[in-house]
C-alpha cells in the first residue's frame, strides 16, 4: 500500500466529511420518537408473550401437580 502524505490525508478526510449529509433537527427528533415508540411496543409485546407462557405453564403444571 502506498504511503500518504499527512497533509494529503487531511485533505482527503475533509473531502469525505464534506460529502456527509447530516440530518436536520426535525429528522433526529422524529427518529428518536420512533425508536422510543418501537421499544415500548416491543416491551409490551414481550411482556404479553411472557404472561401467556407463564399462565400456560402454570395451567399445565397445575393439572399434574395436584
Structural class, from helix and strand content? mainly alpha
CA-based shape: elongated
Count of separate structural domains: 1
Query: What number is the mean pLDDT?
Result: 93
Q: Radius of gyration in whole Å, from Cα? A: 27 Å
Strand fraction: under 5%
Count of beta strands: 0
Q: What is the structure about, briefly put?
A:
This protein has 66 residues and is mainly α. It has two helices and no strands. The chain starts with 5 loop residues before the first helix and ends with a helix.
Care to describe what's here?
- The protein has 66 residues and is mainly alpha-helical.
- The chain has one domain.
- The chain has helices spanning 6-18, 25-65.
- It is elongated.
- The model has no long low-confidence stretch (mean pLDDT 93).
What are the salient characteristics of this protein?
66 residues, mainly alpha, 2 helices, elongated, protein transport
Q: Secondary-structure map with pairings?
A:
Layout: H1 6-18, H2 25-65
Amino acid at each position: 500500500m502506498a504511503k500518504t502524505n499527512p497533509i494529503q490525508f487531511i485533505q482527503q478526510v475533509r473531502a469525505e466529511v464534506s460529502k456527509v449529509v447530516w440530518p436536520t433537527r426535525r429528522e433526529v427528533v422524529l427518529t428518536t420518537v420512533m425508536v422510543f415508540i418501537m421499544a415500548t411496543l416491543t416491551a409490551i409485546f414481550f411482556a404479553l408473550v411472557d404472561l401467556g407462557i407463564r399462565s400456560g405453564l402454570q395451567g399445565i403444571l397445575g393439572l399434574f401437580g395436584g
